[in-house]
What we know:
The protein is an alpha/beta fold. Residues 25-251 form the HD Cas3-type domain.
Amino acid sequence: MDKLYDLNKIISNKEKLYAHIDEDNKKKAELLTEHLDRTIYFYNKLVERKGIRDIIYNIISHIKFDDNNLPKDVINFIYELFINAIYLHDIGKINPAFQYIKMKNKVNAFKNNPKATNSNHSELSALIYIHLYLEKIEEIYEREIEGLRGFLRHILYCFAYIISRHHTYLKGLKNSENKDFKDSIKSLLERIIKEDSYVAYYKKLDELKELDISILESEVNRFDDGHENSSYEFYILNKFLYSVLVSCDYYATHYYDTGNDIEFNYIDDIDKILKTYQSTNIYKGIEMYKKNEDYFNDSPINKLRSQMFIESEDNLLRKYEDGTTNLERYNIFYLEAPTGSGKTNMSINLALNIIKNSKNINKINYIFPFNTLVEQTKRNLDDIFGEDEKFKIAVINSITPIISSSEKLEDDNIDNKTYKEDFLNRQMLHYPVVLTTHINFFNYLFGTGREINIPLVQLCNSVVIIDEIQSYKNRLWPNIIKFLDIYSRLLNIKIIIMSATLPKLDKLIENDDSLFCSLIKNPSKYYRDKIFRERVKLNFDLLKYSNKDKELVKVKLLEKMDKVINENKESRILIEFITKKTAREFYNEIKNKYPSKRVIEITGDDSNYYRKKIIDQIKEKHKETKGDNIEGEYVRKDLIVVATQVIEAGIDIDMDIGFKDISILDAEEQFLGRINRSCERNNCKAYFFNYDKAELIYKKDFRIEKDLTDEEYQKYLISKDFNEFYNLSMKRLKEKNKDSSEYNLKHMREDAYVLNFENISKNMKLIDEEAYQLYLSHEMIIEENDQEVILDGEKIWNGYVELYKNKEMDYSERMIKLSRLSEKVQLFTYNYVDYTNKYDRKPKKHDDRIGNLFYVSNGDEFMIKDEETKSKKFNREKYNEGVSGLFL
């Protein structure tokens, strides 16, 4: 039984003090004590369903004092501080001004002294919490280890800070104006001493007025450098408190609003889900291969896929003489396998096996760098699990509507409670499986906002699958792997990091406690199998022409293309460039040169709808044999796709010939994964050339220091020896970590030590640039249910603005309706940064604006129509005409 502070000892008139009221006066006010008790009720539900008590104890146990483990009674006391920070988070609502002004509660203490009009309650809650436990620390630990009281004072102080911020965002113990949290607490105490009606209902009022707050003013008195070597653990302890506290507060408030209890929707019946998965043809085929190694003799690629599938599962569950398994020993697993080897299928199997063989793990999170990968994986999972409510799959991003339990009902038939429940599920990630972006994931780990911190509690005791980690900012790799390592151990997260080009990031941190397990022990065995190694023949002849003479490179590239086209007649050709500008120039030239061929452009200037339609066309196969058409063969056997690096991941097209402007080695391999992806054709080739500078895209990335103009790097790509390639980056990153001018592990540890939440969040951002978007209003034709539908961009914008500004509508209902409308809004939306003005990157041509979304009423002027699909693309060059120096 958790040790909670007895409210009877500290609150007078508790039967008259409110926590929440119903603005419509349809139900009676919620008493403060009811709200605090409900908060703990939902905390206990999280303990029961999510196992968070063990998580909290685990975090505390990893914190050291003067390099020593904490005594058991100290661990128990810190846990008591933790849970009572949750229980007492709203104790400041005893403030008569809060009762009178916010709760419309005509309490005598306010009527008798109406001058005390400060209705704030969070800082008062923090002060009362400090008062109750500071006294206890001085009493209990008077003769304990030297400095221990200061250490416990500091924990108390930090937990109090979390309480004070539970209605807003985390800054840090010192904010950007260099004002300390203690200054606010000191100021509040001084006001109370002058005017004690603020705490008229606090039974320990007289003792509070005698509180010596100065003991908190000296950092030495607070912690005496005792936890310096546990900086990350201490940071995570406080972040986790914030997440649990805000979550439980939300749950309790939701219960008062709706009268509904909470369903967390974790994975409970793993056997049933495994049975569904194991009934798929792919899994059955692998099982047949286990029994008969000749089963896939007519399909060598499936034989290799089966071998990797089996090896990854065996290594996950490998048992040692002491009875332990790799699953128990390790928290982070590497899954490195070639493109087209079935990594997604392997990851599903691994995740389900982790849940099957782990006591508390009951949730799966997929993390992707691109929305295309999110959508692709969602389709794969839906094909397997369908509409199984016990395995509901939620996409959490800015373009996918919030999952609603009322999707089949008309809006008029949906009550307010349903909207609130659906929105709560989205905020809290109450889904068995979550697919989201790396931006969201990093916000959960490092963000400072109130709502973005809520999902942290849902990450504990879960599987996290991170795809394409090499796409993250290179300079952040040491910081990323350090935090992933510690988060995984403290929150019992089993992390699978998977990619075809996987840097072993653990080499960047020196920690004997860090344990990483490779699920494919010798990936080169598969990479060098002729099926993968020889599926594409590499040609570097064009690299003898330097990009210092771009016109010559262009001539030689077009000559080589012409030769390839003439030799192959019908062929599916992919050409990748580094910049959109270059891609557009070559697209226009190629289209004019080969008018009889289908020429397609795929860049970041496509809407998601257009890109999906184009990709579906590229992938389309004949469904039956009829005349010259053969079942299973591509409908479009003769086409040219001109693209940027958006093609490298998440777009599973299969081409015959590739041309690529060189950049970084792992990007070259990702590109090769689009050529002969099925491994079923012969004579597929890739040609590399050097046109634009890779620095334009990969700024401050150590991987661009060498490229395919170096013959050694050519050998790495041919042999698929990515370890040697990454070793150079690792070496440079380690050197960078010694550079005091860069934000390195040392700086991050120092920020964690003093709980500088803002600075950690700022420096762990995956994207530095502010993101702006253009909404180009025009008429668009889309297909819905095999019928053409005309969308009016202006009407959709006006509807969005009206809904966005509607403050009368319930917040939950508005957010769900906005998420639905956002699906249509994104059809007209394009990312944009004005690179002509380094001081103001915002779009200059626009007629309206909501946040970072800029409305352009004459959007049709800046669109190009694709005649075959009848869809439109953004003409960036046309929009940019005259932008330089233009301010609207």
